[in-house]
Design goal:
alpha+beta, two-stranded antiparallel ribbon, 5 helices, disordered N terminus, ATP binding, ATP-binding
Length: 182
């Protein structure tokens, strides 16, 4: 009986182990199963898969040659709620506003818990390959894309080089001088 009480006392003094949140487990699983996508690179701390740094480098289209940096925050109720992405640079894009918020259907209305981080990464890359003027966050860029494609192209290239579009100064996202950015 004395041994039993001693054992119970020892157990009572041990810290209660906390369960690992489902979101953490799912995010870690998504990242472990990630298959490389050309034009996408990710970085994250294995101890914290809830924050992911994403770099998008399109290899074709108007945004080719740019390096676009995003941070992905995985919410505590993932996969029931979509991850949140923010572009860290000010860019000229119809689906990304000047504060870096991203408009992608699978991050809003079309989100389903069966979708993975990999699929969302691919969706963000797709925004650079095929910008969508029909679902804009930057209405000026969307208007240019749909009504004035040549002007849109000039604005994209100028903005990527760190220039101005109207009164807005954009962040330089190209690493090399290229005459098409002049």
């Amino acid at each position: 009986m004395l041994k039993l009480k001693k054992l119970q006392k020892e157990q009572a003094n041990k810290p209660v182990s906390q369960s690992v949140p489902v979101a953490y487990i799912r995010a870690k699983k998504d990242l472990q199963e990630y298959e490389e996508i050309p034009g996408i690179s990710i970085k994250y701390d294995e101890a914290n898969p809830m924050r992911i740094d994403l770099e998008v480098c399109p290899n074709e289209g108007l945004y080719q040659g740019g390096k676009f940096k995003f941070v992905c925050e995985v919410p505590e109720d993932y996969p029931n709620r979509a991850p949140e992405f923010k572009c860290l640079q000010k860019i000229y894009h119809p689906n990304i506003d000047l504060e870096g918020h991203v408009c992608l259907n699978i991050l809003r209305n079309d989100w389903k818990p069966t979708l993975t981080l990999q699929l969302v990464f691919a969706g963000i890359l797709h925004l650079f390959l095929q910008p969508n003027a029909n679902d804009p966050l930057n209405k000026d860029a969307a208007n240019d894309l749909s009504k004035y494609p040549a002007q849109f192209k000039r604005h994209v290239l100028n903005a990527m080089a760190g220039g101005y579009v109207g009164d807005e100064k954009f962040d330089k996202v190209v690493d090399y001088p290229d005459r098409r950015y002049l």
